[in-house]
Recover the amino acids of this structure.
C-alpha cells in the first residue's frame, strides 16, 4: 500500500491518522464522562484528568500533523456519482469535524491553565499556561468543552453513518477508500 493518497484511494498515512484520531476522540470522550463522576477519594481522581490532558495535547499535535498532511497529500476527489450537494456537504462536514476538534482541544487547554499552571504531558514536558486572564475562564471553557464534545461525537457518529450509507445503499467506494482500497 502506498503512503500517499492517490486519485482513487487514501494512502496509509491518511488512513492511520484518520483511525487514530477517531479512536482517540471516542476514548477521550469516554474517559471524560467517566472521570467527572469520580468521587474525591477515588485513586483515579487525579490520574484520570492528567491522562485526559496528556492524550488531548498529544492529539492536538497529531491533528496539526493531519492538517499538514492534507496539504502535502490531498485527499482523493469524491466518487463520480456524488452530486454537487453531496460534495459540498462532505467538504463542510469534514471542515466542521476539524474545527470542532480544534475548538474542543483549545477549550480543554483553557480549562486546564486557568489557574496559571502549565500542563504536564505524560510527565515528559510541560505546556505553559499562556492565556489565563479570561474572566471565569475555567467555567466558560468547561461548559463549552462539554457541549462541544457531545456535538462532535454525535457529528462523528453521523459521519460514520453517512459512510455506511454510501457503502450499503449507494454502493459507491466512499467507505472502502478509507481502508486503502479503490472499490470497484
Amino acid at each position: 500500500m502506498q503512503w500517499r493518497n492517490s486519485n482513487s484511494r487514501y494512502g496509509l498515512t491518511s488512513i492511520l491518522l484518520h483511525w487514530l484520531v477517531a479512536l482517540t476522540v471516542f476514548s477521550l470522550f469516554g474517559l471524560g464522562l467517566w472521570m467527572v463522576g469520580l468521587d474525591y477519594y477515588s485513586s483515579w481522581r487525579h490520574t484520570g484528568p492528567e491522562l485526559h490532558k496528556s492524550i488531548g495535547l498529544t492529539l492536538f499535535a497529531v491533528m496539526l500533523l493531519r492538517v499538514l498532511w492534507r496539504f502535502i497529500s490531498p485527499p482523493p476527489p469524491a466518487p463520480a456519482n456524488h452530486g454537487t450537494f453531496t460534495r459540498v456537504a462532505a467538504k463542510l462536514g469534514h471542515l466542521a469535524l476539524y474545527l470542532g476538534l480544534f475548538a474542543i482541544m483549545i477549550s480543554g487547554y483553557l480549562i486546564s491553565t486557568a489557574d496559571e499552571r502549565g500542563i504536564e504531558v505524560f510527565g515528559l514536558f510541560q505546556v505553559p499556561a499562556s492565556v489565563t486572564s479570561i474572566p471565569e475562564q475555567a467555567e466558560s471553557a468547561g461548559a463549552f468543552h462539554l457541549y462541544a464534545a457531545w456535538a462532535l461525537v454525535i457529528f462523528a457518529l453521523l459521519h460514520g453513518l453517512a459512510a455506511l450509507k454510501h457503502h450499503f445503499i449507494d454502493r459507491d467506494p466512499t467507505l472502502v477508500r478509507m481502508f486503502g482500497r479503490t472499490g470497484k
